[in-house]
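Attaching the record inline, Q. Sequence:
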Amino acid sequence: VQLQASGGGLVQAGGSLRLSCAASGIMFSAFTVGWYRQAPGKQRELVADMSSSGNTNVADSVKGRFTISRDNVKNTMYLQMNSLKPEDTADYYCSARISTWGVSYWGQGTLVTVSS
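Structure, as predicted:
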């Protein structure tokens, strides 16, 4: 099983980035997929997730600015980030889980840095 995240980088405040996470080795469409982030000195937090049926859950801090999506044909999840703020600076991690099975997988982090 592999989750490969990409798309991080340095962007000015107000800019946009799109993160991608390609999954392999799992039945991707059956999994709840999500993006988490961890800023220096802080705990990892949920940014957004999307169930296998398409229901989404988005953190209040990014609501209206970030959008999670998935492509079950390409086995890829995305996080479109608009109107970025310096406080969005963090390592962003993708995940895939089936909670009822107690199964979860994580990708490596991709660093997003937002300059003021």
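The first strand starts at residue 2 and ends at 6. The mean pLDDT is 97.

More tomorrow.
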